[in-house]
TrEMBL record:
Job description of the protein: Cell wall formation. Adds enolpyruvyl to UDP-N-acetylglucosamine.
Transmembrane stretches, start-end: none
Keywords carried by this UniProt record: Cell cycle, Cell division, Cell shape, Cell wall biogenesis/degradation, Cytoplasm, Peptidoglycan synthesis, Pyruvate, Transferase
Gene3D superfamilies registered for this protein in UniProt: Enolpyruvate transferase domain
Protein name listed in UniProt: UDP-N-acetylglucosamine 1-carboxyvinyltransferase
């Protein structure tokens, strides 16, 4: 992707539904033999991968515009193939859904963004605590239901995927008390989805969840929550370019920690029930970040904020309690003239005017952080690894262009090549 920086973003943009919720609701669709309809599903690479996985397991699907119809009359295969599972983390949640619906499932260790160790021990701990037999063979995990899945799961730390695994495993005929669950909005969305299908879920939004599964889960038509990380990306891009933006179809409550930082920086914010307006200050103050679990400043927004802070003024300190090594875009920001020093897992940023450069995205949010920095930089940048951005952002160049940015895919825009000549 090429980006010619320096233009303040300006305009209105609709936020699309959350990738990380859509993927888990798609996995949950395996729990019912009835048709499931997901409204307004983001058209992303990860969604396509999950559809391939579901098809392999027995799901028939059809798109109607952005509405996705899913139907799994029966599970025809209980093994998820490595080629697909290795493409993203969310695929590991198929294990819980398969064991609940088919009594057995086999899923290899998942792939996904690599920014330090991402173990699955809590997923396995949860399944075992619920009475499943879990075995491992050459990187493939098999879970078997030998009795109805039920019990208490005490997580060692709040884990999004681990909590989702336990919810999926018990929603069909099981029962569980889950302690120290993740409280991320995607968990709440999955709980509400399962409740709409007929499961009983108490404690939604808290760190202790009680789930009583139904013997049979019914089909539903469901609207996914807005993507808070996408919203954060556009807000930070507008702030970095000293622009103004109105986001619609957004849930401001999911963005409290970021909105607080942006206000602290001096940007003017107005917030409505489902919209946010940001007018950037020409003279922003820096802010420090300690990324942590929701409702704290979430780790997925941390690399975005690093892109913003690198191109802003002043000194900032950034650390990440969830993924302490999630600083994969730092070496790339140095290529753009950034002044960033990483020591003992604390990133020290001396914000300054950046210049364009050829840089590489190595994961979704690191890549998006580079886009933010490139939009604020002087001159042209080329961001390689666009396939990572496409995992998590729908039509990113087109939507940035609608806000006045000069960006495009290298394949369909000769501008950078001409400029480089
Ligand atoms: C597809 C998806 O939804 N991905 C999100 C999900 O990933 P994911 O669900 O993988 O992240 P978790 O919430 O599970 O991870 C939180 C912390 O728990 C640790 N942990 C997790 C599971 C486990 O079995 N053992 C263990 O030690 C992790 O290393 C990490 O330090 O939540 C992350 C944290 O909000 C986000 O960055 C990802 O974008
Ligand atoms: C880290 C992410 O995805 P995954 O967990 O699939 O790597 C993400 O969406 O930012």
């Amino acid at each position: 992707m090429w980006v010619r920086g320096g233009t303040p973003l300006s305009g209105e943009l609709r936020v699309y539904p959350a990738k990380n919720s859509a993927l888990k609701l798609m996995a949950a669709s395996l729990l019912s033999a009835d048709p499931i309809t997901l409204l307004e599903v983001p058209r992303l690479r990860d969604v396509d991968v999950m559809l391939e996985l579901l098809s392999h397991l027995g799901t028939r699907y059809a798109w109607e515009g952005r509405t996705l119809h899913l139907h799994t009359p029966e599970i025809t295969n209980t093994v998820a193939p490595y080629e697909l599972v290795s493409k993203m983390r969310a695929s590991f949640n198929l294990l819980g859904a398969l064991v609940a619906r088919a009594g057995e499932g086999t899923v290899p260790l998942p792939g996904g963004c690599t920014f330090g160790p991402r173990p699955v021990d809590q997923h396995l701990k949860a399944l075992r605590a619920l009475g499943a037999e879990v075995t491992e063979d050459s990187g493939y995990f098999t879970a078997r239901r030998v009795r109805p899945l039920s019990g208490r799961v005490v997580f060692d730390m709040p884990t999004l995927g681990g909590t989702e695994q336990a919810l999926l495993a018990t929603a069909l005929g099981g029962e569980a008390t889950l302690i120290l669950t993740a409280q991320e909005p995607e968990i709440e969305d999955l709980c509400r989805f399962l409740a709409a299908m007929g499961a009983e879920v108490r404690g939604i939004g808290s760190s202790i969840l009680h789930i009583k599964g139904a013997k049979r889960l019914n089909g539903v038509s469901y609207r996914i929550i807005p993507d808070r990380v996408e919203a954060a990306t556009f807000l930070l891009a507008a702030a970095a370019t000293r622009g103004r933006i109105t986001l619609t179809d957004v849930e401001p409550l999911h963005l409290d920690a970021l909105l607080d930082k942006l206000t602290q920086a001096g940007h003017r914010l107005e917030v409505g029930p489902d919209w946010i307006h940001l007018e950037a200050t020409p003279d922003p103050k820096p802010f420090n970040i300690e990324a942590r679990e929701y409702p704290g400043f979430v780790t997925d927004m941390q690399p975005l904020a690093v892109g913003y802070l690198a191109a802003a003024q002043g000194n900032a300190l950034v650390s990440d309690r969830v993924y302490p090594d999630r600083f994969t875009n730092v070496p790339e920001l140095l290529r753009m003239g950034g002044d960033l020093t990483l020591k003992d897992r604390v990133l020290s940023i001396n914000g300054k005017k950046l210049h364009g450069a050829t840089v590489k995205a190595t994961d979704i949010r690191a890549g998006a952080g580079l886009v933010i920095a490139a939009l604020a930089a002087e001159g042209e940048s080329r961001i390689e690894g666009v396939q990572y951005l496409e995992r998590g952002y729908e039509q990113l160049p087109e939507r940035l262009r609608s806000l006045g940015a000069h960006v495009g895919l290298v394949t369909d825009e000769p501008v950078l090549a001409v400029a480089a000549d």
